[in-house]
Each structure stands twice: as structure tokens, then as C-alpha cells.
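Hey, sorry to bother you again with one of my protein questions. I've been puzzling over a protein and I'd love to understand its fold better. Take your time with it, there's no hurry, and the full record follows here:
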Amino acid sequence: MCSGEVKFNWEFENKSPCKDRSLQGTGLNNRLQELLDENEGYKIESQNGQRIFVFNPAPSCKLSDVSPPPRGCEIFIGNIPRHLYEDQLVPLFQSVGKLYKFRLMLDFNQRNRGYGFATYFNTFHANQAIAKFNRYEIQKSVRLAICKSVDNRRLFVGNVPRTKSYNDILTLFRSCVKGVTNVILYSTWQDRKINRGFAFVEFENHMLASTARKRFHPRNLIAWNHIMYVDWADPIPDVDPIEMAQVTVLYVKNLPHDYTQEDIHHIFKSVVGPNLITRTHKIVTYAFVHCINRASAEYVMEKLTGLMLEGAKIQLEWSRPRQYSSRYRAMLPPQNLCLSVPVRARRLVKQAADSMRRLSLEQSDGST
């Protein structure tokens, strides 16, 4: 039961690399210290089976106010030779862009476990690293396996009391765990003061979200005489920024249920003009607004932002392309299908997924 603030050790244990007893005399300590000397503003920390090379400028440094990277900047690095460590891996991955953090997984004897994670300051450099280093031959007959890390920062909360508001949920979680940035709570279309019985809680990073899940899962969050269910929410898909910059469709939420598609289309056109919107497709309390081009879509988003309908502010965001929808992604094999699975088995999984996708597309085309 969450009756007050829960104390966690949120700071990494700050160990100098030269204090790792199992590494004394191997020369690795000196190489790690040289790495720190060559990269001003970084430090090395140890925590729970991993060693972390992380950006940590002095307070007087002009870069001290740099915010942590957004979601989608972390990549997974697999198949790392066991004799390689940060002194060789960090320079390699910094060749495409400045690193915010590099995490190398270690066993109980502080030996490399064969995989790690690299976090860049932006998604551009993360995507470049994947393109350059996936299947990169780091030594003879040994190739790295690189893919986007699952950077899920959102938890699903079920069995929420229907009368509780956004502020109630936000206050509850912030009193129990750290790193909560936002709460997403949907109201019923019949009464906007009544929620739909579930919420999504967003955190600063994946680690804080994972810690909160361990704290509350399963059914370990009790408040307002309710046992609430906490687990991972479905990850938000990472869309190629170049592809996203070409989207001309807006996703509009929080629309009045009793407004028809024609009503919404007419209202939006009266605000932005008659020639910028080609069509509007409304479903229950949300809609997709199609514009003639990207510039028009940006103008429509700007003009509609803050619009109030029936006392509620509408919410706008860019619509993701069809291939990133939950229905389409459900038919695909995971992008990071474990490389330890035999090649033939992986091929069969992908063939089955391709067959299901083609069948679904044929059925949808036939229905239209």
C-alpha cells in the first residue's frame, strides 16, 4: 500500500574504475582512466551488473543544463567480443556522434557479458549508428548485432476508480515513485468527469518506469480502497523522422461524441479556411484530418491548437503512417528477433507474418 513517499537509491553508486578489485593489475583500470581523461565531462559508475560511462559535466560548464535525450536515442549492441571493453567500444560508437551514455553489462566477476547499450543525444545519431554498425565486423568472423532498444517509458494502470481525476492519479504516483512526467487519462463520452477506468503514466526514462513497475506489479498498488493493476503499456513505435516529416494527416482527440463527421469537418474548415482540408474521418471521439500538403497541415495544426468544443480542449498530434499502426505491427515478427533462434525458424516466422499481412491487406482492399 502506498501511504507515503517511498525511498529509493536513485543515484548510481559512484565507483572509480580503479576500485574494481577484480580488475586490479589487468591494465583495464588505466585504460578506463585514459578514456575519462580523453572525454571531459564524463564519469564512470557501477550499478547492478553494469558499468556506465555517462555524460556528467561540471555545474560551471556551459553544457551542464543539457536535458537528457528524448525517447528513441538508445540502441542495443549485441555479440560484443568478451575481451572488448569501454576503452575500445566508446570511441567506436562516438565516431558517428557524441554519446550521452554507454552501458556495458558485466557478470559477477566484472567481465563483459557480450552486450550493452549506447544512448546518443538525438535520434539522428542513433539511426546512423544502427545503419553503420549493424553487422559490423568488429573482429575476424565476429559481427555486431545492432537494433533500437525498447525504450518504453509508459505504464498501464487498470482498475482506476472512475471518479478520480488527472491530478489525483498524478499526485498518487509522484508520492510513491520518482520520475513521473505525465498522466494520460481518458474520460467517457457520456460524462467528461468520469474516467474510463484506466490510465497511462509516463516517466523520464525506461529505468524509472521499470523500477515503478517492479514496485507495483502485480496488483501491489492499493489506494482509494481499490487494488489497481500496473504493467507495461504497449511501446510507442519509433517512426523514421524523415517519413514523419512528410505526414499530411492530423490525429485529433477529445472531440464531442454527439458531433457528426460533417459537423467536425465544417467547424475545422470554418477555422482554417475552405481549401486546406480535403476530408475528415471521425470515429467516436477522435478524428483523422487530411490536408492537401505538409505546409497546409502545419498551418491547420497551428490554427486548431487550443480550440474548445463543448467546454473541452481538443488534442492534436501527427498521425503515424499505416505501417506503424497497432493492427499492422501485430502481424509483423519482432524487429529484434533473437539471433540465437535458428535461421530456419526465424525464416518461417517471417514467412508466416508476411502471409498474414498480405491476406489482411487483400481483405481490406476487398472490403473497400
The longest helix spans residues 343-367. The radius of gyration is 24 Å.
